[in-house]
């Protein structure tokens, strides 16, 4: 696997996950679709037509905001972000349709309640079948945030040897290949990639990854979440 994906001592990377803005392609043509997240709240035709989050407890939601706020880095700004960056966050919440508890985004898309929203790449194919909708994704010119799902030993475990055996088994090319095929994921194990669904492999081969300073994000994400939830999320 690509050694840059691992920290070299604690975590073992397993799967690459693109964090995407997806839209109902049965209703919106590619030419009429948003080209970036910021289009959602700056263009009238998309206002109230996208699902916006009502909490930031998920990694997907946090990565969406990492991708947006990173563009507005200002070391002299509030929590390292310029006033313009925080204005974008404010507009995101003011112009979106709040997520509905226990209601899948794809169900809302299928019913016509909304047309678009955030989604990790691996769920799309399955949700399209389950809800009988077709979704296309937006790749902004700056690229998309890429998450790497990983596995690690729990500190202090009394079953270190068994845990290590599980990690070696689960991260093996054979198991990861089967996992990729069943769950439409993109494994980082190069041997497993040969078993992944071809459309997934092609998607990631052409995908532009957003250049994000993850150290900066990690240092600030907790404070960003607190600020967003207290000041903008209503």
UniProtKB/TrEMBL annotation:
Molecular function terms from GO: thiamine binding; thiamine pyrophosphate binding
Pfam families from the UniProt entry: SBP_bac_8 (PF13416)
Xref: SUPFAM superfamilies: Periplasmic binding protein-like II
GO process annotations (BP): thiamine transport
Matching InterPro entries: SBP (IPR006059)
Superkingdom classification of source: Bacteria
Keyword Phosphoprotein attached: no
Coiled-coil stretches: none
GO cellular component, one term: outer membrane-bounded periplasmic space
Organism of provenance: Arthrobacter nitrophenolicus
Protein name: Family 1 extracellular solute-binding protein
Protein keywords: Signal
